[in-house]
Amino acid sequence: MVVKFDLPQGTLDLLILKIVALGPVHGYAIAQRLQQVSRDVVQVPQGSLYPALHRLENRGLLAADWKQTETGREAKFYRLTRQGRAQLETEAASWQQLTEAVSLILGMAEGGAR
Amino acid sequence: MTWWQRLWRRKQMEEQLDKELRFHIDQHTSDLMARGHAPAEARRLAMLAFGGPEQVKEECRDARGTRWLEDLWQDFRYALRTLRQKPGFAAVALLTLALGTGATTVMFTVVNGVLLKPLPYAQPHRLVTLQEQTEHVSSPIFGNLWAFAYPNFLDCQRASRSLDMAAYRFNGGLVSENGKAEYVDGFEISSNLFSLLGIPLSQGRAFLPEEDRRGAAPAIIISYGLWQRFYAGSPGALGKTLVLDGKPYTIVGITPARFRLIGDEGDVFAPLGQDPSPNMQNRDRHPGIQVLARLRPGANLAEARTDLALIGRHLAAQYPESNKERTFIAQPLRPDVGDVQSTLWLLLGAVSLVLLIACVNVASLLLARAVSRERELAMRMALGASRGRLARQCLTESAVLGLAGGLLGVWLAALGIRPFVAFWPGSLPRAEEVGLDAHVLLFAIGVSLLSGLLFGLAPALRAPARGLEQALRLGARTVAGSSRRLHSGFVISEIALAVVLLVSAGILGRALLRLSALDPGFDYHNVLVSRMALSPDVLRNPAQIRAAWQDVLDHARRIPGVQSVATVDTVPMREGNNQVGYWTSSAIPPTNDQPQALANSVSPDYFQVMGIPLLAGRVFDDHDRLGNEHVVVIDDVLAQRAFGGQDPIGKYLWLPEQSSPFSSGPTGDDSARVVGVVRHVRQWGLASDDQAKVRAQFYYPFAQVPDPLMRRWSELMSIAVRTRIAPLNVLDPLRRELRRATGGAPGDQALYEVRTMEQLVSASIARQRFLLLLFGIFAGLALLLACVGIYGVLAYLTSQRVPEFGVRMALGAAARDVMWMVLRQSLGMILAGVGVGIAGAWAAGRLLTHLVDGVPSAGPLTFAIMVPVLVVAALFASFLPARRASRIDPMSALRQE
Predict the structure, then answer these.
(1) Strand, coil or helix: what is B722?
(2) CB neighbours of B444 closer than 8 A, spacing ≥ 6?
């Protein structure tokens, strides 16, 4: 059975930035990739992706252009700005630290119980 | 994209949002179809995975960060729409507000121009005014402050390190040119005055420092106005010769139009240093020299004061006999506007009360509407609107109303300001500065927004506060009871404010009645008074001056319609007086302890001309002249002060040598025998005489003024004419006749400041009359607004109670009972308002008594007259709703329920 998580606050932004960092991409593709990469563990209502995208665009972390997809339709493609890349790096780093710290604490607690 | 671009291209953004979301769903649908779902099923699944598209859109809009502006815009349009839906309500509210803000804005415009605007000079905050100050109080009137002695000014100017100084002195004179003579006001000024003020001349140049000395070639600067009048604005005027008081001056400069020296207009400016008077060389004399100074760059006022104190100490050590215990002080330069200040603040206060009433009125209207909209608001809350959001919408509505009213008000103010200034009694000081400017607009907008907030607050706070389900279930009607307290609060405050204004108007009205009935002490009908300048040629010789005045009287007496003529120096109720110390024995106390009296120099017929009744003894006759015993006529006030119950006739008044008009120079104190007692004349005007510090009066014969003083006295003389016909009708013959009287060249004697005594008497209570008129208008407005307010509130409250009345009537209450119920409700509010209002009115009365001369404290009579007016009017306003309530048909009322 697949366990489904609610995302912690602010995590969605980080994931979006990471996915967009791989190259210009439209909203639907981001949603697909979120599901694929996380093996369906991370599941957000697809609609709620868009307010997050727009917020990031407003903050200048993402930029967007309308381009043709391979099927010939126009879609809004997001890409990372320089500011967004910097933001991604700091957030990824602090996430790394946080998870390390959390797993450290969890490991210690088990040791203490023994 | 900046935020305003996002806002501006809202439509485009909406389209793009729509397109982006549609793409997502379409793409997902086709993917699902590729995986084998039927098209309809695929679409359903895609929609399901996406969530509610409208909700997503709303969140995306929030993410734009311009949400509050969009909401504001939306609320704004909504507000306009609701206002348009109820044009009657909108019109009443707008008109009320426009009147309120309009009147307030007019008053503020005047306050701004007269009191708040800085003087129109370069860097006015760096300007200060200087005075001499002695350690001891020299006179009860002027305290210990003095105008400068000229040598002191020169020394200060030289020695100061923190101040640049300039001096000026008032100096009117007779200007003649080509047989045309005109008396003009003017100044003697130090050469640097214009540069110190930072005012460039419009033509020509300022005085050179070497012109500011004795014996330099006489040069003069004339005003723009005189340049237009005498030279028709011709550039050729520069270099021409202008004769001032018989002395030719070369015109070197012309001031800019509308130039004023600290509020005073002057037509001629001559160099101060050229003044030949011996007083100018005397450190002991203070010939009215005013000193202005500008702080040098880097210096501040405190440094300047230390600087001046140091100079004062130096001069005191150097010239102990004149400068002992004398120093110099500096104060920031402010426009001198006299008692206009308190009048203006009073009026602004009164008009703000009217505005408050207007606000309360609109507030109660809005509240009534808010209550009937309760259902709508409850519905919107049920649909997810937050309380804050609804309150914000209510406030936007009232702000729109307030601003629209304010805009109308500014328009009214722009129309009304000029007539109002023209309407001001006498001349409003700095009237030329009064006009709409950025400050006024800011004030008007502030007032409109503030009043919008004020009257919008109650409905806004109230709107979301009620129980939701209850509101939805029952509709507006039945929950309205809870607003009753707020409504009666409105009525009570309206009544209270109206009482304050009505009673204030009443107090002023009674004051004016009392003042008009006062005996001025003389007969002011059919008397013409005018200052008069003798020909400059005559003024050189005292004997000629005496002869010329006699000649003037003889000529004037011959004019048909003239009954008698006299000369006098200080006319009652006109500006200018001469205060002289006196004592009843030769042991005159030092200056500080001498009682003071007003001295009038008159010719024998003066008492007859003015109709001043003789109480004892005699008035002057032709024997009272130079060489004979000095005589005075005193008024009953002085008789009482100086001699108590004793008979003053034959007693002596002693006059100290510094101020005695009977001699000049160090010849010792003078004594004068009292030959008559006349009735006290209200010298300071009907309103102000009772409060004046110096009231006692004595008269002395012009003929006994000694030769050395003759010229100076002559310059101050006026003629007073009693006529058998309307006094202004003798003016033209008088002018013609006086031109023929002996003098120098024909046409160089002039009458100026021509007034009838009636005008002077009336002007002496003009301020009170003006205040009464405006307070009367404001009070009437307040009464009207309060009545409209009461009517509105009661009509509303009554309509809310229709079902209740229906039940009562069905149970047997008569129409009369219902009516009485409504009236009782309104009477309760009215009486509560009157109670609060009386306290406020009492305080307002104290303020009026304090600020306006001749206003008695508010007696119970004033309240007894004014309060019933209000109560009756208010009851009348509540009568209509009461009658309507009594005519309810119980059946239909119950069916409504």
Answers:
(1) strand
(2) B101, B105, B108, B406, B409, B410, B413
DSSP secondary structure letter of residue B112: I
Which ipTM value was assigned to this complex?
0.85
Q: Would the CB atoms of A75 and B20 count as touching at under 8 Å?
A: yes
The reply to whether residue A51 touches residue B59, judged by beta carbons under 8 angstroms, is yes
Give the DSSP H/E element, type plus range, for residue B868. Answer: helix B860-886
Q: Compute φ and ψ for B221, nearest 5 degrees.
A: -110, 130
Task: Tell me how far apart the alpha carbons of residues B582 and B603 are, in angstroms, rounded to a whole number.
Answer: 21
Which residues of chain A neighbour B27 with C-beta distances below 8 Å? 28, 73, 75
**What is the model's pTM?**
0.73
- C-alpha closest to that of B155 among B299, B298, B322: B322
Q: Which residues contact B314 (CB under 8 A, 6 or more apart)?
A: B159
Phi, psi of B856 (to 5 degrees): -75, 160
Burial class (CB in 10 A: 0-12, 13-18, 19+), B834: buried
Contact at CB, A76 and B65, closer than 8 angstroms:
no
What are the residue ranges spanned by the domains of chain B?
Answer: 3-65, 124-332, 340-517+766-896, 535-748
CA-based nearest residue to B871, from B810, B829, B830 = B830
Nearest-Cα distance to chain B for A29, in Å, is 9
In angstroms, the CA B887 to CA B880 distance is: 11
Q: Do B24 and A73 touch (CB under 8 A)?
A: no
Q: Determine which of B14, B20, B61 to mutate to test the interface with A (most A C-beta atoms within 10 Å).
A: B20
> Which stretches of B192-235 are DSSP H helices?
193-197, 224-231
The alpha carbon of residue A56 is apart from the nearest alpha carbon of chain B, in Å, by 9
Torsion of CA B177, B181, B183, B185, to 10 degrees: -10
- pLDDT for the residue B479: 44
Q: Which of B27, B53, B64 faces A47 most closely, judged by CB atoms? A: B53
Q: What is the pLDDT of residues B728-743, one digit of tens each?
A: 999 999 888 887 776 5
Instruction: List, in sequence order, the alpha helices (H) in B567-678.
Output: 606-610, 636-643
pLDDT in tens, B259-314: 888 877 889 999 999 988 888 888 888 888 999 999 999 999 999 999 999 999 99
Q: How many CA atoms lie within 13 A of B530 on its CB side?
A: 24
Three-state DSSP at B332 gives strand
Please indicate whether, in this complex, the C-beta atoms of A58 and B64 are within 8 angstroms of each other. yes
- Which chain B residues contact residue A45 at CB under 8 A? 49-51
Residues of A within 8 A of B18 (CB-CB) are none
Pairing of strands B268-271, B186-189: parallel
The one-letter code for the residue type at B683 is: Q
CB–CB of B551/B686 below 8 Å? no
CATH 1.10.10.10, applies to A11-113: yes
